[in-house]
Design a protein that fits this description.
274 residues; alpha/beta; 7-stranded parallel sheet; two-stranded antiparallel ribbon; 8 helices; globular
Length: 274
């Protein structure tokens, strides 16, 4: 489905992003793998190359205002024009509202809203101009171009202890719908995948003491075991989703099967929230 297409995925060093990189590659895409963790980023790209996939790694912080231009230019220089952009990078930094500091609030909005916005803006310079040329020459765009942003059921419904994350993830939905409206005339699609409980380090038991190192902070991630067990009772399928199942939602919306779907939020939740 993605033969001769170029896919860029942020946060692809592990979890959902890594699974999405593998699935896109299996369907013929060339892939740029981005992650804050250089070793994880390099490992994924190397594994893809071993399967015959054209892949490159670009480690870097998506919240750096200068990084989006580097990301776009690196993909174009090494792989060719970008067809699919997946804004997947992110983490949680939970806390109750009355205990949440300004930095805890702003860093989560920065990675989940500001970074995707800047990346999309960086893409706009090449994508809109190319689409305009194609429309002038052929009457319609010739190349497939789409964005898949990653959201969460926390953004759709709110979640205790996640005021920052829920606000950011709902912001992703608004950004997606706006891009779909503004760029639809150029044949550029923009959709969101909202994940429920997917088996990643963000949903594993907090007691496992997993953490993410961000700007000098060790940010604990995961869900308290008691809350995690209670969550299962709300999922009709009675289990967490796998990263491969989550990746399937991303690839579905990026694929030719979804060429007339834009501005949509696909819930990949096992039925949570229905």
């Amino acid at each position: 489905m993605f033969k001769k297409e170029v896919v860029v995925i942020t946060g692809a060093g592990r979890g959902i992003g890594r699974a999405a990189a593998s699935l896109f590659a299996a369907h013929g895409a060339a892939v740029l793998v981005n992650d804050l963790d250089r070793s994880a980023c390099d490992e994924v790209a190397t594994q893809l190359q071993k399967t015959g996939t054209k892949a490159i790694a670009l480690a870097g912080d998506v919240t750096d205002p200068a990084f989006p231009d580097r990301l776009v230019k690196a993909a174009q220089r090494s792989l060719g024009p970008i067809n699919v952009m997946v804004n997947n990078a992110g983490y949680t930094w939970d806390g109750m509202v009355h205990k949440m500091g300004d930095e805890q609030w702003s860093r989560i909005l920065d990675i989940h809203v500001n970074a995707p916005f800047r990346i999309i803006r960086a893409l706009s310079h090449s994508w809109r101009a190319a689409a305009k040329r194609e429309i002038a020459a052929h009457g319609r765009p010739k190349q497939r171009r789409c964005i898949v942003n990653v959201s969460s059921t926390s953004g759709l419904h709110g979640n205790t202890g996640q005021a920052n994350y829920a606000t950011a993830k709902m912001g992703v939905v608004g950004l997606t719908k706006t891009i779909a409206r503004e760029w639809g005339r150029y044949g550029i699609r923009c959709n969101t995948v909202a994940f429920g409980f997917i088996n990643t380090r963000l949903t594993r038991p907090r007691e496992d003491a997993q953490s993410v190192r961000v700007a000098g902070y060790d940010v604990a991630v995961g869900i308290p075991a008691a809350h995690r067990e209670n969550a299962f009772a709300s999922i009709p399928m009675e289990r967490l989703g796998s990263v491969e199942e989550a990746a399937g939602g991303i690839v579905l919306l990026a694929s030719p099967l979804a060429d007339y779907i834009t501005g949509h939020t696909l819930e990949v939740t096992g039925g949570l929230g229905i």
